[in-house]
């Protein structure tokens, strides 16, 4: 599991100061890039390797609203399934209450060939294989 702390910003909220759905997705993807960076795969290195991520399916389940300026953490759990990576993230408020969960499927994209590819083995080794999300 990989986690990071954040605060809800003005860009994340709607007119009622509640965090919007797209912000949950954005924080999940941001955390995925932090995870990859932590494993030695910065965005620059991915660009050199002509690798990109392509989102496929996404689902958000919101249990409790996160409000403007509220501190929260995102915990990333990952799982390799077939030729894509399914990622589940949990959003917890400062009281460690489960506020939301996001599930996203991402595929690796070869920017040079402009096609979806199998996950590279050097990156895949950092993901939990065959674990249900």
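Q: What amino acid sequence fits the structure above?
A:
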């Amino acid at each position: 599991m990989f986690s990071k702390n954040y605060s809800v910003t003005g860009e994340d909220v709607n007119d009622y100061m509640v965090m919007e759905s797209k912000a949950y997705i954005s924080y999940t993807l941001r955390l995925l890039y932090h995870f990859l960076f932590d494993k030695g795969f910065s965005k620059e290195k991915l660009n050199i390797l002509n690798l990109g991520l392509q989102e496929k399916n996404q689902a958000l389940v919101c249990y409790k609203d996160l409000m403007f300026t509220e501190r929260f953490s995102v915990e990333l759990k990952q799982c390799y399934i077939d030729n894509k990576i399914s990622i589940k993230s949990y959003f917890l408020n400062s009281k460690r209450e489960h506020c939301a969960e996001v599930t996203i499927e991402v595929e690796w994209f070869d920017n040079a060939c402009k096609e979806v590819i199998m996950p590279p083995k050097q990156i895949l080794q950092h993901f939990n294989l065959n674990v249900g999300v």
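Q: And what stands out in the fold?
A: Residues 75 and 94 are 13 Å apart (CA to CA).
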